[in-house]
Amino acid sequence: MKLVWYLLVMAGVTYFIRALPFVLCREKVKSTFLQYFFAYIPYAVLAAMTLPHMLFEGESPLSACAGLLTAVILSVCRQSLIVVAAGASVAAFLAAMLL
To answer: Are 68 and 89 in contact (CB under 8 A)?
Structure first.
């Protein structure tokens, strides 16, 4: 029974954290700084989630560097998040096949 309560509390806290910005910010964000900040959040999250695994747990550090370099270039060129992730994966795969 404790597990059910733990899950309910965890679900409530998660819902509260996700719903709070919608309740507090009903208007569009007008600050250009915040708009740029929010625009780069997906790229930062992708980098934080994949970079340690990519560099330290892969077979070849060179293929990891090829994927990282491709991801950085595609990000600087303002490609979508899916294009960046797919491009980095393909580049790392091809580099691993060639090396």
So the answer is: no
